């Protein structure tokens, strides 16, 4: 593996990458601090190519954000509304079913359901939601409820995490999305989401899911008050859990959108393209035991998501449709992308598109 660096400090990290040695905290910080974006990208791309060759995954999916009512009041979130606050909504189960049915015609293989912590929505509501989705779109994988929502249901009913997850799975849940991880460092959580479960609890929910055979994703919300060291520590904690369970499928960095949030005065601007690519590349290098690094085009734009295919990324998520969290915080990207557009982006990067389901089973790869 030949690399060409502008920043000589990358040589030591490159030596480890060449030998397949694990990177540590210091390496991660060197990578983040280096101005040599192309150098870091070369390293990440080499790792990506070894794992996936030319294949780039995407999914035909739809998001459903069933309620924005939330008792957590996270300062980075423009989507959530306090109970009783104007603008709060809850979708009826009929509405949720209708949304899933409408997308069924487009050939979705995944529905992704995430919402706020609504004090009146209990396990019965979620059981019925999942059962109705399972019956409405049979065969479609249901990726629903973040660790934060699972923990909330456990608290509401005085149940163990294992019991809640077992009930949800029996009703139709296949996989947990990666939301709610934010940045694990207690200092950061205290500042941006003081009411949210701790990083340790988020990891415990995922560990329990993995033990039950439920595959999950992991995220990190970056570009607000966190330090580069805190970003790397977050990645190391994910890597450590993955060493023990192997239950994570993909890591997805989420680019903070400050608009309309309580953090906007403190963090008035969004992430830069440079930081977005660096974040994805460093994740690819640190998370050596994760199969997939996914660029969420809704947050970084389809063009940068396409470029990120040269920076360690092997998955550009999906058609998405109707994701409301980013839009509430000022996101300007389209409401969804067609399958044909995802194919075009991947092919124009010289790669081979592979349509997958949530669990990375191949749905289709023989595109004309
Ligand atoms: O948990 C909230 C984040 C997450 C903002 O698992 C924000 O495949 C940016 O987790 N700016 C929900 N981000 C979305 C999510 C997700 C998305 C795509 C794929 C997957 C997956 C998971 O969005 C929240 C929070 O971390 N978020 N507010 C904001 N202002």
Secondary-structure map:
Layout: H1 10-19, H2 25-33, H3 37-52, E1 55-59, E2 61-64, H4 93-104, E3 110-113, H5 123-136, E4 141-144, H6 147-157, H7 161-171, E5 175-176, H8 186-192, H9 199-211, E6 215-222, H10 228-245, E7 248-255, H11 273-286, E8 292-293, H12 297-300, H13 302-307, E9 315-318, H14 325-328, H15 339-348, E10 352-356, E11 362-364
Parallel strand pairs: 1-9, 1-10, 2-3, 3-4, 5-6, 6-7, 7-8
Antiparallel strand pairs: 10-11
The site of ligand V47 has 23 residues, from strand 6, strand 7 and helix 14.
Describe what is shown at a glance.
It contains 15 helices and eleven strands. By secondary structure, it is an alpha/beta fold. It has one domain (26-364): Alpha-Beta Barrel (TIM Barrel), CATH 3.20.20.
Task: Find the count of extended strands (DSSP E, 2+ residues).
Answer: 11
Query: What's the CATH class, please?
Result: Alpha Beta
| Gross CATH architecture | Alpha-Beta Barrel
Largest sheet: 4 strands, mixed
Radius of gyration, in Å, reads 20 Å
Small-molecule components bound:
ligand V47
Integer average pLDDT: 97
Please count the helical segments: 15
Percent helix, as a range, is 40-55%
Major sheet: order of its strands?
9-1-10-11
Instruction: Please indicate the percent range of residues in DSSP E strands (runs of 2 or more).
Output: 5-15%
**CATH superfamily (homologous) name:** Aldolase class I
